[in-house]
Amino acid sequence: MKVKADRDESSPYGVMLAAQDVSTRCKLGINALHIKLWATGGNKTKPPGPDAQSAFRALARSDMKIGRIEDVTPIPTDSTHQKSERRGRRL
């Protein structure tokens, strides 16, 4: 746990601290990375959010070589619809 408040765990600052910790642990033998980016996807939102960019920047600043960034977000292949309120007339 890098930040003290729960609301800061998913913030770009918390992700940046976690990425810096990962890079210091990987200094022993790993100097290059291939990154797979996974967002919510499906019938929900596709973009990964601001946290991913801050994590990539923190890894690049810590002298880790980033080889490939691959987006593995699931894409729906059928006609699914978002979960929403009930349809039809309600009394």
Question: Could you explain how this protein is built, in words?
Answer:
The chain is of the alpha+beta class and 91 residues long. It has helices at 12-26, 50-61, and strands at 32-37, 65-71. It has a two-stranded parallel ribbon. It starts with 11 loop residues before the first helix and ends in a 20-residue tail after the last strand.
Low-confidence parts lasting 5 or more residues at pLDDT below 50? none
Residue fraction in strands: 5-15%
What is the residue-mean pLDDT, rounded to a whole number?
81
Give the N-terminus to C-terminus distance in angstroms. Answer: 48 Å
Tell me the total number of β-strands: 2
Shape: elongated
Strand order of the largest sheet: 1-2
Secondary structure category: alpha+beta
* Total number of helices: 2
The main β sheet shows up as: 2 strands, parallel
Spell out the helices and strands N to C: HEHE
Helix content: 25-40%
Radius of gyration: 18 Å
